[in-house]
Each structure stands twice: as structure tokens, then as C-alpha cells.
Amino acid sequence: MIFDYLFNEYIEMFDDIHSKSEIINKKNRYKNHIKDYIGHLHLEEIKFKHCQEIVNNIIKVKELSPKTAKNVNAIVQTIFNYAIKNDYTEKNPAQYTIIPKFDNKYNISLKQNQIKSLIDEILNFDNSIYKLIFIFALHGRRKSEILKMQWYQIDFALKVYSIPAQKNKARKHDVHEMTPLLYHNLKSHYDNEIKSRDKVLEKDYIFINENTNTYFKDLRRPFNKLKKLACIEKMRFHDFRHLLGTECIKKGIPVEHISQALGHSNIDVTQRYITKDSNISNKVVSNFLSSYSS
Hints:
Blueprint: H1 3-14, H2 20-38, H3 48-61, H4 66-85, H5 112-123, H6 128-138, H7 143-147, E1 154-155, E2 160-163, E3 174-177, H8 180-197, E4 208-209, E5 214-215, H9 220-229, H10 239-250, H11 255-262, H12 280-290
Antiparallel strand pairs: 1-2, 2-3, 4-5
């Protein structure tokens, strides 16, 4: 039995038992991180090295967190445990995978002059598409939320954008008011798209890779260029979110507001009693950016 068939059997078996969000998460992680490595292999062909390569690729190549690697490896372990219970195999190679220790209380260590340089370089980036992508990142959006964003999520009249539940890690519909910086750059990009393509459909991706005619899947080259220009050696794309959160905490912005700006599912029980307004994201990000304006 090949692993891909086994995974689909597991999903079908537990589709009505696990929550819908859990099934979706497993499918997405399998598609994005596991399938290309071991999906085509027979169970007895999969060794420890294959499972370790999945983890290494997540951390070193995709520059995602060890926590993400741990969650993905947990899926591989779960599928193998299911196989063992059904006498499909006798071993679980994923149980030996080595994952670096991580701390959820992660703080990015950038000095104030580095943060200012980072923002300045983004605002002066020579490619308008990547510039807009980085501006979205400054607003706390996840990379996948940015790259897979479509025009139906944008409302220029109300100056808001939405992250629907199916594109949101927290699996909830979020609406954020645009800052003037984001609005002007996004509107300019939209006008350019209209001129170059004559017609822009709501289903179209906002950021289209001309080489593949679909959304961008790799930002390593422009992101590495940005880091070099800003004289920053160590930074992941996801660190934009940590940067926004950490700096806003320092400025005394209520943690509930920061949580909403970042699109977190919750912070604690008291979050249930917070009234959420779409313009909070605007206030949080504007407050952050104003500290580093030239």
C-alpha cells in the first residue's frame, strides 16, 4: 500500500469523527508538506530519512517554524499508527524524527535602527508587486494569506479587506480596515492590472506570477534581497507578524487589539468579551508604522 492511499483511507475513516477544521488542516498539511516526499512510496519503503527530510525542508527551505514541523510530523506519525493498528505495517519511522526545540514565546531580535531600515527598504523596494506583498506582511498577514489573496476579498469603497475562513489559519472570517499606506499601494496595483489586462475578475489572484500565470509560491529571492538591503541577516517571513506584535506590546497597545490585527483565534477567555471592530487593525498597524516613519 502506498502512503497516499493510506492517508485518504484514514481521512475517509475519521471524516465524521474529527472536526471539519481538523480534517481541513490535515489535508492542507499533507498536500503542502508531505505528499511530494512520501505520498508515492509504499509503506515499507518509507524510512526515517524520508520523515527527517520532510522536517528539514519545512524548517530550512520553507523557513517555517519548528512548531509547524512538529505538527506535520505528528500527521505522519498518526497515519503510521493507523497503519499499525490495521496490520498494514509494523513500524513507525516518524517516531524517531528529530525536531529542534522551540518556544512559542518567540521574540524577534531586531534593533530599532534595523526595524526602521526594514520599513524604509520596503517602501522603496524597486518591484511594486513585491513591495505590496511586503506591505501586507507589515500589516501582520500570513504569507499564505497574502499570496493566495483574490480580488473578491478587497472592498475599495469601504477601504477594507477580508480573510475568509477557508484562507485563515484560525478558521474564522476576518475583516480589516486598510491603512492609507496599504490602500494607496493596493489601489495603484489594481489600476495597473486594469491597464495591462483590460479586465480583472473577482476570482483572480491579486499577485500573479507571470512565469506560471498563477499565484506566487516562493518569495525567497525578493525576501533575501530585502533583508540584504536592510542589513538583516536572520529573519523569516513569518517574523513580520512577530515584529508587529512585539513592537505593539512595547507601545502599550491592548493585547486584545493586537490579537485581532494578527487574526489569532483567541488569547484567553477574556477575548470572548472583546467587541471586535474592523478598524482596530488600521489603528494597530498605523501606530506601529508611525514610530519608524522617516
